[in-house]
Amino acid sequence: MNLVQQIKEIFWQTPSDLKKIRRLLMMRKFTKDELAELAVGFVGNCFGEYRDALNPEFKFITIENMHSNYVVEAIDLLLEFGLDPNTIVHDENVLWNTKWIDAPNVAASVMRLLLENGGDPNHFIPAEFETLFENITYKVSRDEQENDYLYTVRCWLLLMAYGGCWRIGKIPITMLNGKSVEIFKEFELYDYGIEYLPQESGKYGYWILHIFNIKTKEEVARYG
Hints:
With about 220 residues, this protein is α+β, with helices and mostly antiparallel strands. Helix content is about 40%, strand content about 10%.
């Protein structure tokens, strides 16, 4: 069994032995593709995990033994050994796959770590025909009734804080009271409210998304 496969098997376990993984990573120089494959694989272990942990019929997973509990530490470890957040492997990329982590705020926490280490908020995968920012923006505009909408919104705000934008260089939200979009690097501080409008308003989607500071209740941005 090669080292990549050994690390994958340890990542699959809960909890993963990150100290053992570190020792394996130190044994040789891993390529960017190998590190990207490990990152994509580990993040993949977190897909739908929180939903399953809340389902009493799924006895094999609990909140306490989710991969999502230490995915930030695992990705940080791979970054330490040279992970490039922008590498595409088998038409997949860890930045993109992060959006499917459904545990509260974990997706945005992993995404922030990747963006802080060179991740491109406007990352483009040819097979997707759109940028990561465009993809998340579409989810924000369409999925307002989903249970994980807050975490989608926070990923979206985070991408804008690190330079995510339309291809013409503009962002789709209006910042208020002189605030900079960079405030959303601390995504945990913000929540949203939806104002539904009558259809005759002419507003796309018939709603407005109000972004506000949780502590002060100040509205800092608006979408729609």
